TrEMBL record, chains A, B:
Belongs to the TrkH potassium transport family. This is Trk system potassium uptake protein TrkH. The keyword Glycoprotein does not apply. One of its GO terms (molecular function) is potassium:chloride symporter activity. Keywords: Cell inner membrane, Cell membrane, Ion transport, Membrane, Metal-binding, Potassium, Potassium transport, Transmembrane, Transmembrane helix, Transport. It is a multi-pass membrane protein. K(+) binds at residues 101-102, 210, 304-305, 421-422. The chain crosses the membrane at residues 29-48, 60-81, 126-153, 174-191, 225-249, 261-282, 314-334, 387-406, 444-469.
């Protein structure tokens, strides 16, 4: 666990280094940011290095939650010191939206923002993506959070309280995939016509399923070939990175062995087939443009990236609702995407189907299998409970936002996109809007929902239960 | 099972007798209705009396589904033959809305409808309420549907394939409660100033949690004392009838022993306390009126009755959303109310809470208890799956309705209120609207959702699975 915190601290540094290198007149705030990042890293390392092996599970929840909180506090310094953001709630919102890879923004004119700050903004998403890989592979299995760690291939599950050597191995591989693909997509963007600055920024926010752009028009600003590239890499960033590693090393059978990957691919194809016709009809565009827009928005929303190339709320109320539903999907466990994720949906669908078998044959033992392995009742219960708590937080959150005076669709949209770490939504927070108009309380509340969603709900919620605080 | 079908057939007859007695110029269509009802009863009795003990579980799903389908088909004859409704989709909608105790209507001027037909309309709800008691007590436990039968007090659960004598005893008691309370509330309504016709109609639709009224203004037409009476009897009609029987026989300890009853009462009180202030503020009415309206609408929506005395969508978007959320509650198992019901919510909430204990103490055995009894993992899974399927049908149903060209809130409202058998909703199907404007497909689709919700989803859904059709 101490090792993880060292890593967390260290990976703040390259981010700051990059930011420092790219500064364009706003150097001082970024230097402060670098100092702050180093400070938090050193503090964490110093605090915990002397009790490395003795940190208990319950302290883990607190450390993970506090790590993200600290990162958010120090991460917002560049915005505040530079004056790009002039109040605390906005700074909290923008930073948390970055670190959680949500990508919702309070900036009304992105292109007018200093390039150094804007780079830091993209970098927060990349750091967030890296952080979520660590959590998924190394921390959540130990903490028993979310119930999906068993489906991240090669993860040995919660068998030991110490960092398993194989986990460290897996984590290294995934970082290799993450960093490698970031470089690859950045080079492609550059070759395909983006300038160097835009290419780097979009590479960072593509692989993090972040969705921050340097352009007010998001990806709609760029050429079709760049949009297709973005689609492909958004798809990859929503794929379990272990499977990408298998793919890169030629083990394609193991890739297709994953039920979640199959469901993810099949769902994308089915949604594309179903929606391309209606979008073509209602958008009154050429077929290629309608096809590209449909595929782009489906991929962007399902992977929770949140780039946009067209206003999907402008076609038809039924299509708006379908695109809104995508906010609840999420892509794969073991990727950087947020939201519920396919393996949970798959568990729910498979179990629903088997429930019918169970009521018809009440005495039969009807096991549920994923990737060929039997899933225990405990994990099925945990996952279905996760789904219900997720939906309940969505409902309660929407009530809170609507009580602040916003219409129901805007409230649904803002809460769903925050909780799912997506970015755009429906209502007044549609794909062409921003979150600047919300009051300070709502901004902080939505930031909290982003953190809640990003840390798989339980990590934070457990801190509010007596089980966590009760001695031993 | 044969006994049940005889009962089902027989209880069509008093309904028809009433209708015949009350006819006010529209006698012939009601005579046909009487004949039809008798015909279906006789047919069912004749078909199954010779194989009484041999009906298998799987045939049960089909029989229950078909019984409601047949009742709907014959129940709509009075509307069609009288000409009150001039097309099939509208007749289907109105009849299914009656028999499922939903209470949504396509009639635009209720007071202009002939009194005999209007009485038949109220009677369909009362028959539906009676039917649902039979299903809950005698049929669902045998079929293993819904997972809540174990919480209906004194129900012995799915231990035998034959109609247990104690079940017959329980069913008799519940009918006694149902019929007794119907008479009681009818007498009270009459004494408090309703005319005889209105008192009888409203007595039938109050105890069925039906919500059909003989007035265009629903219960807003009547005096405050009648509204308070309605509140009290709506509350009772949403209570487990076994508990009312205990209450009537003085066993109050057993009433309060029910966790579901406690949750139901506490929720009503909490919602009242939370909402009375805001409603008072936004309605600009006197406090007593605001208090009465708040309590009335909360009780009406949660018990899925659907009477209205004020437009709860006119206050504030946040309050509208809260009232909309009530459509997903439902009252108690073993009552005539529809929807999800408190015992399922209770199971979900308790299990969510325990999930945190389980992740903090992964090796501990953490059982879930309701009414002091341990609930098996199988039932927890079944109930949580029910909740998720319910919500999934809500989402898919809303997409279907919105694709027919209605706005998102109207689609959400129409689907939620149909599935939950409530009646009024939000959007264009608010408390002062009706369902006449929907296209024929949507009307039939919403009718299907009403049946789906009323038969606890699984009864109908199982017919669409191979497990049901595969030989043995
Ligand atoms: K995002
Ligand atoms: K109703």
């Amino acid at each position: 666990m101490g090792a993880l915190l060292m890593i967390l601290a260290l990976l703040m540094l390259p981010g700051v280094g990059f930011a420092y290198y790219y500064e364009s007149g706003d150097q001082t705030p970024l230097l402060y940011s670098a100092f702050a990042s180093f400070a938090i890293g050193a503090t964490l390392f110093f605090s915990f290095s002397n009790q490395d092996q003795n940190i208990r599970k319950r302290e883990g929840y607190l450390i993970v939650s506090l790590s993200w909180l600290f990162m958010s506090i120090f991460g917002m310094l560049p915005y505040l010191i530079s004056g790009v953001v002039d109040n605390l709630p906005d700074a909290i919102f923008e930073t948390v939206s970055g670190l959680t890879t949500t990508g919702a923004t309070i900036l009304t004119d992105i292109e007018a923002t200093p390039k150094g700050i804007l780079f830091w903004r993209s970098m927060t998403q990349w750091i967030g993506g890296l952080g979520i890989i660590v959590l998924t592979v190394a921390i959540f299995p130990l903490l028993g959070i979310g119930g999906i760690e068993l489906f991240v291939a090669e993860s040995p599950g919660p068998t030991s309280d110490k960092l398993h050597p194989r986990i460290r191995e897996t984590a290294k591989r995934l970082w290799f995939v993450y960093i490698g693909l970031t470089v690859a997509v950045g080079v492609l963007y550059y070759v395909e016509g983006m300038n160097f600055y835009d290419a780097v920024n979009h590479a960072l926010t593509t692989m993090a399923t972040g969705g921050f752009s340097t352009k007010n028009d998001s990806m709609a600003y760029f050429s079709p070939i760049i949009q297709y590239t973005a689609i492909f890499f958004m798809f990859l960033s929503g794929t379990n990175f272990t499977l990408i590693y298998f793919g890169l090393t030629g083990r394609f059978k193991r890739v297709w062995h994953s039920d979640e990957f199959k469901a993810y691919v099949i769902a994308l194809v089915i949604f594309l087939i179903l929606l391309v016709g209606p979008v073509w009809y209602y958008s009154a565009e050429g077929f290629e443009k309608a096809f590209r827009d449909t595929l782009f928005q489906i991929t962007s929303l399902i992977t929770t990236t949140g780039y946009v190339t067209s206003d999907y709320t402008a076609y038809h109320s039924g299509l708006t609702l379908i695109f809104f539903m995508f906010l609840f999907l999420g892509a794969s466990a073991g990727s950087t995407s947020g939201g519920i994720k396919f393996v949970r949906h798959l568990t729910f669908f498979k179990n629903s189907w088997l429930e019918f078998k169970r009521i018809v044959h009440p005495r039969a033992v009807v096991p549920l299998k994923i990737n060929g392995d039997r899933v225990t009742g405990k994990i099925i219960t945990h996952i279905m409970n996760f789904l219900l708590i997720y939906l309940m937080i969505f409902v309660v959150g929407s009530i809170v936002i609507s009580l602040m005076g916003y219409d129901i669709l805007t409230s649904f949209g803002a809460v769903a996109t925050s909780l799912g770490n997506v970015g755009p939504a429906i209502g007044r927070v549609g794909p062409e809007d921003n979150f600047a108009f919300f009051d300070p309380f709502s901004k902080i509340f939505l930031s909290f929902l982003m953190l809640l969603g990003r840390l798989e709900l339980f990590t934070i919620l457990v801190l509010f239960t007596p089980y966590f605080w009760r001695a031993n």
